[in-house]
Write a structure and sequence with these properties.
CATH superfamily: NAD(P)-binding Rossmann-like Domain
Radius of gyration: 20 Å
Order of helices and strands: EHEHEHEEHEHEEHHEH
Largest sheet: 7 strands, parallel
CATH topology: Rossmann fold
Strand content: 5-15%
Strand order of the largest sheet: 3-2-1-4-6-7-9
Shape: globular
Length: 295
């Protein structure tokens, strides 16, 4: 496997890219969705800056795509590295057409079981990191009046269930910030796409950050912890299909704000929206003052 430095480095461009080739910056590009998105972009003839914590894991892929895949080391919690990576991507390929904020990790544990430092770390990686990178690519996108910011949240960014409060808190925060961002940048020709996957065959289940369990939560969180462990490698979703869906969504003339991926995600989000509508119907007389006298 070719040796790749542990600090950001740029591969020389072997031949001029197609004028239609998109320039991507993808975080967490060496596994799961990030790896699938990277392969799909390369297969489409695009140029990719793949940002990963361990660049050597993409040595073979970089060797197979000289001049079109640049691998850089990135810890998304490091503000200085984030700034350097964006400058690197822009100077290497001219600009960034698509930023994919994919880096993240799974957590499982009741809210009470979760140490505050673990909650803060999850927010640093899955909220502050993506927001930082989004802010860094926006000046270039604003100058060109074009570009797309893709935020990998989760169906857990729009709904939550026992045992994943920390994960859903981070993804939900990113989801809400991104919805507001979409309204801010749409008049400038910039798009935001929030991707909400369900259960896919990635390393998510097998690399969960687990809180120390408390017996009182065994009936609720314990079952979730067990089901996630038992389902590792058996998830119904195929990351390669997710990558094809992402590329198709980017090419839509009227792009959506959200892209739910997987039958389970679509069903769970529909159920969440139905429950919100039911709550609104049941409490509307209270909320609008029809049943009580407000001062």
């Amino acid at each position: 496997m070719p040796s790749i430095p542990s600090i950001p480095s740029i591969a020389s461009i072997a031949s001029p890219p197609s004028p239609d080739a998109r320039r991507w910056l993808i975080t967490g590009a060496n596994s799961g969705f990030g790896a699938a998105f990277t392969r799909a972009a390369l297969a489409a003839g695009d140029l990719v800056v793949a940002a990963v914590r361990r660049p050597e894991t993409l040595g073979d892929l970089a060797a197979a795509h000289p001049g079109r895949l640049t691998v850089v080391a990135l810890d998304v919690t490091d503000a200085e590295q984030c700034e350097r990576i964006v400058r690197t991507a822009e100077s290497t390929y001219g600009h960034i057409d698509v930023l994919v904020n994919n880096a993240g990790f799974g957590t499982v544990g009741a809210l009470e079981e979760t140490a505050e430092e673990d909650l803060r770390h999850a927010m640093e990686v899955m909220f502050f990191g993506p927001v930082r990178l989004s802010r860094l690519v926006l000046p270039g996108m604003r100058r060109r009046r074009s570009g797309t910011v893709v935020q990998l949240t989760s169906m857990g960014g729009l709904l939550a269930f026992a045992g994943v409060s920390t994960y859903c808190a981070a993804k939900g925060a990113l989801e809400q910030a991104s919805e507001a961002l979409a309204a801010e940048v749409e008049p400038l020709g910039i798009r935001v796409l929030i991707v909400e996957p369900g259960a896919f065959r990635t390393e998510f289940n097998g690399a969960l950050q687990k809180a120390a369990p408390l017996p009182d939560y065994e009936a609720t969180v314990g079952t979730i912890r067990d089901s996630l462990a038992d389902g590792d490698g058996k998830q119904p979703g195929d990351p390669e299909k997710a990558a094809r869906a992402l590329l198709a969504a980017l090419d839509l003339p009227e792009p959506p704000l959200r892209l739910a991926l997987g039958d389970d995600a679509v069903a769970a989000i529909r159920d969440k929206l139905a429950r919100v509508a039911s709550d609104l119907d049941a409490t509307a007389p209270l909320g609008t003052g029809g049943a009580i006298n407000f001062p």
